[in-house]
From TrEMBL:
GO BP term (any one): positive regulation of gene expression
Family from the record: Belongs to the LysR transcriptional regulatory family.
Gene Ontology terms, MF aspect: DNA-binding transcription factor activity; sequence-specific DNA binding
Protein name: DNA-binding transcriptional LysR family regulator
InterPro entries: LysR_HTH_N (IPR000847), LysR_subst-bd (IPR005119), WH-like_DNA-bd_sf (IPR036388), WH_DNA-bd_sf (IPR036390)
Domain HTH lysR-type: 9-66
Lineage top rank: taxon: Bacteria
Organism, as annotated: Jannaschia seohaensis
Keyword list, A-Z: DNA-binding, Transcription, Transcription regulation
Keyword DNA-binding included in the entry's annotation: yes
Length: 305
């Protein structure tokens, strides 16, 4: 039996439909696409003929997506992310002086090292557009996997079955406390030292929070954080405000403007990798490679600053 592999759906019509779903009006969609308003309406009618169902109902001057339209949009949204990835790659291949790079990072790197790298990267590339976001680990991994981000920058991820993970640098976690805190007199801080002080802990459901808790348990020291937070930067802010102590990554500790906190090595040593996450089997774009050179420099300065 011969299989018909013809695709009856027009990619251009799907693009018009997706843009209209995002902007909700034919005027805004036309401006985004660089076509006329009647062309948008004609394209939607043509797509309705191809799919065999109504996509929009008109309510006075507003277009209301049907339930079928919302389902279709959910299906094709990843396709547009991939198309934007292809467009960015084409612009990159033209020379690298202009184009788009999409970067997503987890908070410890996204609020410390990555902005420093972005500053240096942008200084020499005024024509490059950067789409940058800071999200939780699972969001970064998902975005890279579907092509919504070109690269992900993660702390604490050593491997992933569906992605390429490159460890860029390993650094140990540190204890933070106010500069005049009694523990600041120590050269190294242990779980036993922290047990008698107000502890600001990381969420135990997170990777970093779990390894800190495990270090306490192995040292047979009680782990009783008075406050638990999701992000390392939040832990540092509360440590200063509440005159407590916390254990965070080295990069967060190195990029804390306007804070008078002392940083001491935490023992037992907890080594945390800073990683690059990319799509498996895909060569990095020229822009991504150039950004990573700046990111590597920022990692070094963050680890020694």
């Amino acid at each position: 039996m011969k299989i018909d592999r013809r695709n009856d759906l027009s990619l251009r019509l799907l693009e018009v439909f997706g843009t209209l779903m995002l902007h909700q009006t034919t005027v805004a969609a036309a401006e985004e696409l660089g076509i006329s308003q009647p062309s948008v309406s004609v394209a939607i009618k043509q797509l309705e003929g191809q799919v065999g169902f109504t996509l929009f109902e008109r309510e006075k001057k507003r277009l209301i997506p049907t339930d079928d339209a919302r389902i279709l949009f959910q299906e094709i949204a990843p396709l547009f992310d991939q198309l934007r990835s292809v467009e960015a790659r084409v612009r990159d291949l033209r020379g690298g002086a202009a184009g788009i790079i999409r970067i997503m990072a987890t908070p410890p790197l996204g609020h410390s090292v990555a902005p420093q790298a972005l500053s240096a990267f942008m200084a020499a590339r005024p024509g490059v557009t950067i789409q940058y976001d800071v999200r939780r680990m699972e969001n970064v991994v998902d975005a890279v996997a579907v092509g919504a981000a070109d690269i992900g920058l993660c702390l604490g991820l050593e491997a992933h079955p569906g992605l390429d993970v490159q460890v860029l640098r390993n650094d140990r976690m540190v204890a933070l406390m106010p500069a005049d805190h009694p523990l600041a007199r120590l050269s190294v801080v242990t779980p036993g030292d922290l047990a008698e002080h107000r502890l600001v802990g990381l969420d135990r459901a997170s990777r970093l929070g779990l390894v800190v808790q495990t270090a306490f348990e192995r040292a047979r020291a009680p782990y009783r954080p008075q406050v638990e937070v999701r992000y390392c930067h939040t832990a540092a802010v509360l440590t200063q405000a509440c005159r407590g102590v916390t254990v965070v990554d080295r990069y967060t500790a190195s990029f804390l403007p306007h804070m008078t906190l002392a940083s001491r090595p935490f023992d037992p040593a907890i080594s945390i990798p800073a990683c690059l996450v990319s799509r498996k089997g895909r060569q990095l774009s020229r822009l991504a490679t150039e950004f990573l050179a700046h990111f590597g420099d920022a990692l070094e300065s963050g680890a020694t600053g």
